[in-house]
């Protein structure tokens, strides 16, 4: 097997743009939800978690209310577990509130095939029966394999299948930008 | 860092890092025991063969529940109803099970080494659910998870084991596990149950002492592991049951000799009034029921790691401990 090279093609977002987008997404969610009552955010591990926390913080500035934030690990719900060579490391989901009758917004960095979100929804429904579930992503890039769409989108990007979107966040990556890279073999 | 396990035959060959990994991977499964809906579909379509050649209730139910909660099906073989009674050999029995295409086999056997033997002859993952006086790895893992949850660490603790250590695979697996983290052991019971070779367990430099006086054994203990005393063994070189109770029962007065926050563990089945006083069994230091719940988490983690992720993927780096 030939080694795969990853080539950086372009920068899609700077740190400032990420911040502005998060602020806008927070406003949109509050607006379309008619306030923050009953609202809760669920960050999908890994990069959905800092994004959810940032959106919650932005909402505090808008509404002065603390929106509960939970964390969801989808490993046990993946549909490709037995096929992945690299052993995924399980992490805990931390959802310190009941999801029953909640107005939930799932938060993830990139919406691609839709399979992660399918897994996340299965995980959520094991915890109870939310009133509504919507999806918020920083980047939407097409190539869906399931009938899943986001309600709140930071930015839509046209991509080819060989391209990869890398969202790098300070909390995890110690840098802050969104890149479009390509796999070259 | 993640590890793969081809089999789980014993604690002895594992590294401290592998043990920490297994305990960490058990955490998400502890949480699932608190969910309103405890059933996952992660191992849907997989089959776990439970081959219990020795009677077992709690370990078998724990493995069966763990498999069910992961969505796996089970094949059940129990000693009482097995064809072993009709003279079939161990190898023929497990080959028959294997021919029904399970994805993993869990074995309990009265002969030490039976799971290793099966692992050498069958092409599928084998989990040791207790073999003779050799090992009971999942019990030691669930004990370690319980201790780590309560104490926040496994490092450098004083562990006292009370009872029939000679015949106890639980004691051996616990010694193998906790000595990898620098724990010191005091083994206590009638002298006939404290053979000298127990002092040789664990890595070089391990402190294992044998003590026949319970007061001496409990002093300064962080964890007291009380073993079941099999009454059928109490007649051996004649130790009457009353005498055992008098000398070795874990009572509230004796437990006060240990550290004030000492934990009391028991692998079950527990006989109140024999090896343990009911006030200790039900007291705030007792972890007995947590152990049972943690047993599910540890077994789910093992089944997940051994039959779930990557099971159909090409092997890459192999950290496993093969049977031979």
- The count of helical stretches of chain A stands at 4
Helix segment tally of chain B: 11
User: Roughly what is the average pLDDT of chain B, rounded to an integer?
Assistant: 91
The amount of helix of chain B comes to 25-40%
What does the radius of gyration of chain B come to? 19 Å
Category by helix and strand content of chain A: alpha/beta
CATH architecture of the largest domain in chain B: 3-Layer(aba) Sandwich
Shape of chain A from CA axes? globular
- Beta fraction of the residues of chain A? 25-35%
Low-confidence stretches of chain B: 315-324
H/E topology pattern of chain B? HEHEHEHEHEHEEHEHHEHH
* CATH second-level architecture of chain A: 3-Layer(aba) Sandwich
Unreliable runs of chain A? none
Oligomer: heterodimer
Spatially, the strands of the biggest sheet of chain B line up as: 7-6-5-8-9
The largest contact between protein chains, plus residue counts on each side, is:
A-B, 22 and 25 residues
Total number of distinct structural domains of chain B: 2
Q: What value does the average pLDDT of chain A take?
A: 93
* Name of the CATH class of the largest domain in chain B: Alpha Beta
- DSSP strand count of chain B: 9
Specify the overall morphology of chain B: globular
Structure write-up:
The complex is a heterodimer of chains A (185) and B (324). Chain A is α/β, with parallel strands linked by helices. Chain A has a single domain (15-157), classed as Rossmann fold, CATH 3.40.50.2020. Chain A has helices at 15-33, 48-63, 115-125, 170-173, and strands spanning 5-13, 39-44, 69-72, 103-111, 132-140, 152-156, 163-168, 177-184. In chain A, strands 3-2-4-5-6 form a 5-stranded parallel sheet. Chain A has a 3-stranded antiparallel sheet with strand order 1-8-7. The radius of gyration of chain A is 17 Å and the shape is globular. In chain B, strand 1 (47-52), helix 2 (58-69) and strand 2 form a beta-alpha-beta unit. Chain B has helices spanning 16-32, 58-69, 90-99, 114-121, 137-151, 169-179, 214-218, 241-248, 252-255, 278-281, 288-308; strands at residues 47-52, 73-78, 104-109, 126-131, 158-162, 184-188, 208-211, 223-226, 263-265. With 324 residues, chain B is of the alpha/beta class. The two termini of chain B are 25 Å apart. In chain B, the strands form 2 sheets. Chain B has a 5-stranded parallel sheet. A 4-stranded parallel sheet of chain B has the order 2-1-3-4, sandwiched between helices. Chain B contains 11 helices and 9 strands. Chain B folds into 2 domains: 16-134 and 291-308, Rossmann fold, CATH 3.40.50.1370; 137-288, 3-Layer(aba) Sandwich (Rossmann fold). The interface between A and B is medium-sized, with 22 and 25 residues.
């Amino acid at each position: 097997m030939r080694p795969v090279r990853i080539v950086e093609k372009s920068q899609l977002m700077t740190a400032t743009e990420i911040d502005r987008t998060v602020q806008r997404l927070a406003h949109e969610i509050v607006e379309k939800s008619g306030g923050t009552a009953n609202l809760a955010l669920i960050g999908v591990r890994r990069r959905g978690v800092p994004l959810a926390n940032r959106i919650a913080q932005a909402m505090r500035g808008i509404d002065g209310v603390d929106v509960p934030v939970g964390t969801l690990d989808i490993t046990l719900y993946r549909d490709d577990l037995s096929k992945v060579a690299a052993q995924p490391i399980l992490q805990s989901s931390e959802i310190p509130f009941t999801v029953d009758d909640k107005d939930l917004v799932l938060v993830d960095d990139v919406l691609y095939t839709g399979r992660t979100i399918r897994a996340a929804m299965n995980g959520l429904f094991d915890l109870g029966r939310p009133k509504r579930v919507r999806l918020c992503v920083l980047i939407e890039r097409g190539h869906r394999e399931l009938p899943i769409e986001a309600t709140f989108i930071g930015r839509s990007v046209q991509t080819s299948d060989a391209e990869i979107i890398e969202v790098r966040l300070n909390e995890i990556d110690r840098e802050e930008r969104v890149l479009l890279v390509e796999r070259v073999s | 860092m993640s590890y793969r396990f081809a089999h789980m035959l014993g604690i002895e060959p594992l590294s401290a890092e592998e043990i920490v990994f297994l305990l960490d991977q058990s955490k998400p499964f502890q949480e699932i025991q608190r969910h309103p809906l405890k059933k996952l579909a992660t191992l849907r379509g997989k089959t776990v063969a439970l081959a219990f050649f020795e009677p077992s209730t709690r370990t078998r139910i724990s493995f069966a529940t763990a498999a069910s909660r992961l969505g796996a099906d089970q094949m059940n073989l129990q000693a009482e109803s097995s064809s072993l009674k009709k003279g079939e050999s161990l190898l023929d029995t497990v080959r028959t099970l294997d021919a029904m295409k399970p994805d993993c086999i869990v074995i309990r056997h009265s002969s030490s080494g039976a799971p290793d033997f099966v692992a050498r002859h069958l092409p599928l993952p084998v989990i040791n659910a207790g073999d003779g006086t050799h090992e009971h790895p999942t019990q030691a893992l669930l004990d370690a998870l319980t201790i780590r949850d309560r104490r926040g660490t496994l490092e450098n603790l004083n562990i006292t084991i009370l009872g029939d250590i000679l015949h106890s695979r639980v004691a051996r697996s616990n010694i193998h596990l906790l000595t990898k983290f620098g724990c010191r052991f005091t083994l206590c019971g009638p002298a006939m149950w404290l053979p000298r070779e127990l002092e040789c367990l664990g890595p070089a430099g391990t402190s294992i002492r044998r003590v026949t006086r319970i007061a001496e054994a409990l002093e300064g203990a962080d964890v007291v592991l009380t073993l079941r005393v099999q009454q059928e063994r109490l007649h051996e070189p004649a130790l009457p049951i009353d005498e055992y109770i008098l000398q070795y029962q874990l009572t509230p007065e004796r437990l006060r000799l240990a550290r004030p926050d000492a934990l009391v563990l028991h692998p079950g089945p527990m006989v109140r009034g024999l090896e343990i006083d009911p006030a200790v069994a039900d007291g705030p230091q007792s972890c007995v029921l947590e152990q049972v719940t943690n047993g599910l988490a540890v077994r789910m983690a093992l089944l997940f790691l051994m039959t779930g992720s990557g099971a159909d993927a090409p092997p890459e780096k192999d950290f496993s401990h093969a049977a031979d």
